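re: that chain from earlier
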Amino acid sequence: MGDPLDGQRSPNALLKDTITASGATYETLAATIRTVAAEAGDAIRTNRSAVAHWVRGAQPNEATAGYLLEALSRLLGRPVGPQEIGLEDTSPDGAHEWRVDTLAALHELGGVDLDLRRRRALTAAAYSITALSVPASPWWARMAEQSASRPATSRRSVGRRDLEAVRDMVAMFSRIDQRHGGGHARGAVVQYLTTDVSAYMHGRFTDDGVRREMFSAAGELAYLSGWMAFDNAEHPVAQKYFTTAVSLAAEADDAPLAGHILRAMAHQAVDLGHPRRALSVASASMEGARYALASKRERALLGVVYARALAASNQKSAAAAALLRAEDDLASAQPGDIEPSRVFFFSEASLAHETACTLRDSGDLSAAQRQFRRSVRTRKAESFTRTHAVTLGYLGAVQARQGAIEEACGTWSDALDAMDGIHSARTRRTVTDMRRVLATVRGRGIGAVADLDRRASQYLAESV
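^ sequence. v structure.
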């Protein structure tokens, strides 16, 4: 039976032509849309019939339209705008990446994020592949020049004590994230960033050094909000904070901070299954002053994520070389070195965790297991509880893949113990993966399986 409304609609020739240009079938496009939606935490059932319906003139809802645009952008390898496929532009405030007016972008993004009525448009937005294209050199120079010449819009005098207060708050929020997960207090981070810190950035700085350092501190806070959203699987939100944080780092002319944030964007892209884009961003994080001016500890952090991106791109030899370089960088860091507070978390345990992930992705499960054990053994679990729990979850998964199910059950039990009170999508994902493996071995008569599965189910129910 035909669609009763077909006679009232005009076919969307622009959409049909764009799909044809992409070379994708309707089924391939529908599958890509579902992938994009899943990255935003939205489980939709778009199929080839829905695509055909749109081509005949039906309009997808606002969220699905965003997923459609991103899917076509990925298939074509370039940005696709709504008007190009016959749709209205209903993008939420703050949705455009790499904007030049950083303070306006920050205000818009924070405003949407904190407004419960408008936030759904932000959380349902698509994770953008095009936003992983790092701006060229002229953009960075323009951002630094713009910041230095921007006139104050407030009479408030901003000095070094104000800067110290912001840094103290960044340190406090960072430690909360490490202990309790990204699901704790992110709203408070955004509120502080878009009120107190934003007010400082509009004020009159006592000297240019304070201005640059205040923009760096704001960049760290925007990055932290993005990292917390990433940890809580709010990937489109996280990406928008990351790109805003990069813009703030550019205004501060702070190359190592920019590298730090680009490293986080690469980490996210690896996790979401975009290895080629991840490698491009990770490579950019290691370029020029971003690596050269970074502290040795931060160099190691940039390097180990670069190694992960190489492994995800199946460049195993290059990944191994990058791991050795990261190990050397961390080994050369000394207790008295001057380094930014943002790398307080990166230690031998952190390097071992990322090294293990790289080795796991390269297919060396035995070496990965050794490095995960090293991470568990050396981490200060009381201070870095969230990552400790994730590491135990990953270790159990590697043990299970090697056939050591009883050993994996013991490790996973320890992981669930560590997850008590943690609000993190990454811990939830490890538990979901755990239950998937347990479902395959229930019939083997292993006593620990049923109890562990019950505990895992209870954690998932209580940690939403």
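The beta strands are 157-158, 204-205.
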